[in-house]
Write a structure and sequence with these properties.
This protein is of the alpha+beta class. The longest helix is centred in the middle third of the chain and has 26 residues.
Length: 349
């Protein structure tokens, strides 16, 4: 009998120890990360990719056989080189050929124009006084116009001795020729691209044809500039669907004022199709899928409370919460995987 009593007492003590251990376990605070809910903006995107092209590019070739002389960049005082920004009208190189210049007879043609103009004014004065016929006046006018055309043509001929930038842009190719080298007609002298504004062709899935519209903002990134986002706009959309790819074509104009994008770069584009301002936005990866719906954990006086939520707009990383959460509540963003409803937690971050 005494042994039975001792055994019962032992079992009671063991049970008490187990209860004490369970209470200790229940009091353990699970470390979690949490952040205060604040209102922010969320954007819904259509993701696509494409290649960036310059708005304008031009390749200037020699139009006469002549002696080549590269000019200096007026902003640096040094010879032009690849990567230099150039303005329309700036002289890149000279092509010298004295025989060619003499054949144009610019000075002679200019003097003849002045004579024809003087003769025309004389004939106009005489005609008003009845001193010449209308035919003589018209002949003087024709001679003047012919002389003027000859001077214009001479100027155009002389322009062939100058390699002048026709557009603002950046020198992207500048073949090397020794100063004073004789070059032939049709030789490339310089290539200029204007890529302060760029464009890209994109192919968009058929399902977005009623979602994407001209004028929508496009956010562009490239792996070489991970910290910068460049802004563009949808400018054109084709109304036709490609039967083979089930996609339609769009054109995006890119504002590249800082020259961050370079011609030919592969670009990731996010077309903003919807936007909500001043709403509750949370990371998508903290949402748990339960049988009763989507849930997250909110910290309330050291207790993690599971909360059912409803959602709205979403993108790759974030989602709008339309009900179930309030501004300034603290939501668990890390360590939620092991939580149960009303678990004790300790915020470590």
């Amino acid at each position: 009998m005494k042994k039975i009593i001792i055994a019962i007492a032992f079992l009671i003590a063991l049970a008490a120890c187990r209860n004490e251990d369970q209470n200790l376990t229940a009091d353990v605070e699970i470390p979690v990360s949490a952040e205060e809910i604040k209102l922010k903006t969320i954007e819904e995107f259509v993701n696509t990719t494409g290649t960036a092209f310059p708005r304008g590019e031009i390749e200037l070739k020699s139009r006469i056989a002549a002696t080549y002389f590269l000019e200096k960049n007026p902003r640096t005082g040094k010879m032009w080189k690849m990567g230099d920004k150039v303005k329309a009208g700036e002289l890149i190189a000279r092509l010298e050929d004295e025989e060619y210049v003499n054949s144009v007879q610019m000075e002679t043609n200019q003097l003849n124009l002045e004579l024809m103009e003087t003769e025309l004014r004389k004939q106009e004065s005489l005609y008003e006084k009845g001193g010449v016929t209308l035919k003589e006046l018209k002949t003087a006018g024709i001679n003047y116009e012919n002389a003027k055309t000859t001077v214009i043509n001479s100027r155009l001929q002389l322009e062939k001795t100058k390699i002048v930038a026709p557009i603002d842009g950046v020198i992207v190719d500048l073949p090397y020729y020794t100063q004073g080298t004789q070059i032939e007609t049709g030789i490339t002298v310089v290539k200029i691209m204007d890529y302060q504004t760029m464009y890209m062709d994109v192919q968009l899935p058929e399902k977005y044809i009623s979602v994407i519209e001209p004028g929508q903002i496009v956010k562009l990134t490239n792996y070489t500039i991970p910290e910068d986002t460049i802004i563009g706009n949808v400018t054109q959309l084709s109304p036709a669907i490609d039967a083979d790819t089930r996609s339609f074509k769009g054109i995006v104009s890119i504002d590249n004022n800082d020259y961050l994008l370079r011609p030919g770069m592969f670009v990731k584009a996010d077309i903003v199709t919807n936007q909500m301002d001043s709403v509750i936005v949370i990371p998508k990866n903290i949402i748990l899928s339960r049988q009763r719906g989507k849930t997250v954990f909110v910290v309330d006086r050291g207790i993690a409370v599971e909360r059912i939520i409803e959602t709205g707009l979403e993108n790759m990383t974030e989602i709008e919460v339309t009900s179930g959460l309030s501004k300034n509540e603290r939501i668990v963003t890390g360590g939620f995987e092991t939580l149960g409803n009303r678990s004790k937690v300790k915020i470590i971050k």
